[in-house]
């Protein structure tokens, strides 16, 4: 097994995750066991995996870029490691020894990495050849100390030629001059921790000057070709192209002796084909001029990373439709009547964004804030024939709006929003733990069955007329089965249900260009070369090319081109 450690200096969140390949492990030094209980505005979105693991958003980037399927074990946190060590101590696994940070915790980290690195991540079911470990945070931080020491020991443990470290640093531009001191200090800090970077990836707003590269190489004890300039590009999808041009693949191949690893010709062909498709698709973005205006009506619009997978899914779909994505952010609370008098400028701006949108998206979220504004946005989309996509909470919002304004149930609401609601069209799922929040939602990959008589469904056609699909879930609330018939009689059809037929998974309006809402989170499984079907249909409808995109998807399904990893995306 080969290992590539990607660490960061100067500041965190600098972009370490954009240069990883093959299989990946993300280390987060925080004490939380997982990301499930962390507020989106605190740490960005919580990403959900097939096995129900609630993990750091970077694992979503790994899956999207590498087209692989990861597990909850691929995200290591301080909380997970300490919990694991303490549980072993309680069982007597340490045979009465004094349990210490070194060697017991650092050994546990290494053993975890070595074990998880061998888990198959694609449909070949073979052990990966290379594991890329991203060490979150900043080297030198107190929280990262144990993990840095574990990485130093792992490097010694696996031996020369099996471990490469890439350190990502910042090269700021001050008064027009590229400054190398922060990078020099960062490399010295890494050295004090016992690690010597093999490659230095320099983040900068603009391409690095040759003199800057020369200076970094000289003072950081590396050759010029070991300094990678990762400057800002049009989109993150161009970063792999940028790194390839600078010889990253050549360097890693040499340092890790990757040529000695046997490769099946079918895998080589598939990799070459995928790389060609990636370059063609991402490069074509530069030649796109027509835009599609999507208005996202959400709760956490101050931190866009709260909806990172949603953004990526929209980007994937826009590229497939040959459009430039213009994503307009609207704080849902600004659409509510109170905002008209309290902050009129924001109120009118928000409503202008909704009224001029090509498509309206209401994503997931928790809590009461802004939900009345979301309901108003859903009503506008329904009554004005504007393409609408509701995700999780967005489905529940669509149900509430329809119940109030079409089914004449004026007090319709959700138990989450109003515990004393006389007409709860959305209720708490009976099996959910209401006290313990961590890991207790309906999580992970679950089946959705398209119902008989739903052949007209636009979304079903995009899935290639499949009767069953698999998508990832994360929710505590569901549509109240007692109201389903009343909603359906008026035209709100639940075309998809769970495998027991009791949980509403997909709703759709027949007399609308695109009014679709899903209880699951399709954004978690969207890929650059294989966009999520609900998002693709939504963006295609907003772009005026739904019929063509549907025909393409139907053709691909017939030709067997739509089957994804382990048959997950169908």
UniProtKB/TrEMBL annotation:
Gene: ura7
Coiled coil regions in record: none
Top-rank taxon: Eukaryota
Organism: Lachnellula hyalina
GO MF entries: ATP binding; CTP synthase activity; identical protein binding
NCBIfam families: PRK05380.1, PyrG
Alphabetical UniProt keywords: ATP-binding, Glutamine amidotransferase, Ligase, Nucleotide-binding, Pyrimidine biosynthesis
EC numbers for this chain: 6.3.4.2
Function: Catalyzes the ATP-dependent amination of UTP to CTP with either L-glutamine or ammonia as the source of nitrogen.
Name the UniProt record assigns to this protein: CTP synthase
Any single Gene Ontology cellular-component annotation: cytoplasm
Catalytic activity from the UniProt record: UTP + L-glutamine + ATP + H2O = CTP + L-glutamate + ADP + phosphate + 2 H(+)
Single biological process term from Gene Ontology: pyrimidine nucleobase biosynthetic process
InterPro entries: Class_I_gatase-like, CTP_synthase, CTP_synthase_N, GATASE, GATase1_CTP_Synthase, P-loop_NTPase
UniProt record similarity statement: Belongs to the CTP synthase family.
Domain Glutamine amidotransferase: 303-533
Occurrences of domain CTP synthase N-terminal (ranges): 2-258
Pathway per the UniProt entry: Pyrimidine metabolism; CTP biosynthesis via de novo pathway; CTP from UDP: step 2/2
């Amino acid at each position: 097994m080969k290992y590539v450690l990607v660490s960061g200096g100067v500041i965190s969140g600098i972009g370490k995750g954009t240069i990883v390949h093959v299989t990946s492990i993300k280390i987060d030094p925080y004490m939380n066991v997982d990301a499930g209980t962390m507020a989106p505005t605190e740490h960005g979105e919580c990403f959900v995996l097939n096995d129900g693991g609630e993990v750091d958003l970077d694992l979503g980037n790994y899956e999207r870029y590498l087209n692989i399927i990861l597990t909850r074990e691929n995200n290591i946190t301080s909380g997970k490691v300490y919990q694991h060590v303490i549980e072993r101590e309680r069982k007597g696994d340490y045979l009465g020894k004094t349990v210490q940070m070194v060697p017991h915790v650092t050994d546990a980290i290494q053993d975890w990495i070595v074990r998880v690195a061998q888990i198959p991540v694609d449909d070949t079911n073979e052990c990966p050849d290379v594991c890329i470990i991203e060490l979150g945070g900043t080297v030198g931080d107190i929280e990262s100390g144990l993990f840095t020491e574990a990485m130093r020991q792992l490097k010694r443990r696996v031996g020369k030629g099996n471990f490469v470290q890439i350190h990502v640093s910042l090269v700021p531009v001050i008064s027009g001059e590229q400054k190398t001191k922060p990078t020099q200090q960062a490399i010295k800090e890494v050295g004090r921790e016992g690690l010597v970077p093999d490659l230095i990836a320099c983040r900068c707003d603009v391409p690095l000057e040759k003199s800057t590269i020369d200076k970094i190489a000289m003072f950081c004890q590396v050759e010029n070709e070991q300094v990678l300039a990762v400057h800002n590009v049009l989109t993150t999808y161009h970063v792999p192209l940028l790194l390839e041009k600078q010889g990253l693949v050549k360097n890693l191949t040499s340092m890790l002796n990757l040529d000695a690893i046997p490769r099946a010709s079918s895998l080589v062909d598939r990799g070459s084909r995928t790389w060609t498709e990636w370059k063609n698709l991402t490069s074509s973005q530069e030649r796109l001029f027509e835009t599609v205006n999507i208005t996202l009506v959400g709760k956490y619009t101050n931190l866009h990373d709260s909806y990172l997978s949603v953004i990526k899914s929209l980007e994937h779909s826009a590229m497939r439709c040959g459009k430039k994505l213009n994503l307009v952010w609207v704080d849902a609370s600004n659409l509510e009547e109170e905002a008209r008098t309290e902050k009129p400028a924001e109120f009118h701006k928000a409503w202008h964004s909704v009224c001029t949108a090509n498509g309206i998206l209401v994503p997931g979220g928790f809590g009461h804030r802004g939900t009345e504004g979301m309901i108003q946005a859903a009503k506008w989309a329904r009554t004005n024939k504007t393409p609408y996509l509701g995700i999780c909470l967005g489905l529940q919002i669509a149900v509430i709006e329809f119940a109030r304004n079409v089914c004449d149930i004026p007090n319709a609401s959700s138990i989450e929003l109003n515990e004393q609601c006389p007409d709860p069209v959305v209720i708490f799922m009976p099996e959910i733990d209401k006290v313990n929040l961590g890991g207790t939602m309906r999580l992970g990959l679950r089946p959705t069955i398209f119902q008989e008589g739903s052949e007209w469904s636009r979304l079903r056609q995009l899935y290639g007329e499949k009767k069953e699909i698999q998508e990832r879930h994360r929710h505590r609330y569901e549509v109240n089965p007692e109201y389903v018939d009343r909603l359906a009689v008026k035209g709100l059809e639940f075309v998809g249900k769970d495998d027991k037929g009791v949980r509403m998974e997909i709703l759709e309006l027949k007399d609308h260009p695109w009014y679709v809402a899903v209880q699951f989170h399709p954004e978690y499984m969207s890929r650059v070369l294989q966009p999520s079907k609900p998002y693709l249909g939504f963006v295609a409808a907003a772009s005026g090319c739904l019929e063509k995109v549907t025909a393409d998807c139907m053709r691909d399904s017939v030709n067997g081109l739509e089957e994804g990893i382990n048959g997950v995306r169908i």
